[in-house]
Amino acid sequence: MVRLFFTGIKHSGKTTQAKLVSSLLGMDCHDSDDLILKEIGGSVRDFYRTHGKAAFMDAEYRAVEAFIKSGNESFILSLGGGAADNTPLMNMMRENGEIIYLRREEKAMFPVIMRHGLPAFLDAADPEGSFHELYSRRDRIYSEYASLTIDLGPYGDRDETAAKVLTALREAGYVQLIR
Q1: pLDDT of residue 176
Q2: Ranges of the chain whose pLDDT falls below 50
Q3: How many whole angstroms separate alpha carbon 25 and alpha carbon 70?
Q4: CA 16 to each of CA 21, 22, 77, 105, 114: distance values in angstroms, whole numbers, following the listed order
């Protein structure tokens, strides 16, 4: 049984890498957003706006808990970038598998996050400063909880990055448990 939870800052490549690595390993791959949609029955953004952060984090926890309890033995589950703020969720993941922190450098991530305009979680008056604050806090939390931190480096070829992730998982002994 190998349960890998891919975590990281928004747009670090969690879902992309989860899909690529799981296909290389022949494992099931899931995304927490899809699990949450089953829990809330509508749009994640609409739910968050209507019910707030606390209700969203509760729904996120319940969705991941139901997924774990449903008997999934081996899987890779990619989490949303805000999972670091959900302490009960982080504790549950640590108790039920391995937290893999896919880390990218802050200076490389900010332009990627801003590519589609100012996200709601950043302060319009100081987007770079508010991203720095968010990144620093979440980086610390993910680093504390992680069973393994994989520094992905700059954005580049997805397949090369997947090979890097797979190598790190092998070196940490997780892949040997699967194959």
Answers
A1: 63
A2: 177-179
A3: 21
A4: 9, 10, 11, 17, 19
Residue 79 amino acid letter: L
Radius of gyration of the chain (CA): 16
pLDDT mean across residues, the chain:
92
The domain limits of the chain are: 3-171
Secondary structure element (H or E) that encloses residue 169, with its range = helix 158-171
pLDDT of residue 128: 95
Q: By the 8 A CB rule, do 17 and 6 touch?
A: yes
Distance CA 101, CA 115 (A): 23
Please name which of 79, 78, 131, 80 lies closest in space to residue 106, comparing C-alpha atoms: 131
Topology of domain 3-171, CATH? Rossmann fold (3.40.50)
**Tokens standing for 139?**
């980086």
| Alpha-carbon gap, residue 111 to 115, rounded angstroms | 6
In terms of phi and psi (left: phi > 0; alpha: psi -120 to 50; beta: otherwise), the region of 157 is beta
Please give the sequence-ordered ranges of beta strands (E in DSSP) within 16-138, or none if there are none.
28-31, 75-78, 98-103
